[in-house]
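The authors assume throughout that readers already know how a fold can be written as discrete tokens. For illustration, here is how one protein appears when written out as sequence plus structure tokens.
>
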Amino acid sequence: MGASLQDRALVASPPEPVPVSALTGNDPSRGFLIKPFRVSVDGFSPQLYYAASRALALRDAWWGYRNYREVTFKEWLRMARCWREDEIGDQFGAPITVCGKPAFFVTHNNQYVQFSRPGGTEYFNAHPFDVEPAEFRPWTYRRDSDAVLARRPEGAEPRSGGSAGPQGIARKDQP
């Protein structure tokens, strides 16, 4: 007599686990995948976008442009021009640590540090104090006062009554 359904279920082997990289497309062994692209449209200056591919850069630019004027993606592709940006800086793509985990530096906006995880096709924001080494933080978040002073030209001191920006240049709100 044949085995019951209940007996067969006990004998069956469990399914193979699916790796997370197969579900998310993020494979840590692939390294740093983000690239800088410039996207331009007539009437607007070219803007810098960070994406894993030219298509993703165009998509991100289209989403931003739609705030100005509603267009279909097909119309957008006829208007937009996209190219790889070569002059991006020495720190782009450098290995860093964010919250103790490996990452790659993308850029910073003087408030947050943008980074990508190994094998990731997107980038995220991190608080500058979560980023190591310190030279990848915006200058205002560097604890080493020598790093900030080194950015000022010789003999340049901040104006009294306020703080100075990089290179010892006084902010506009100062007297």
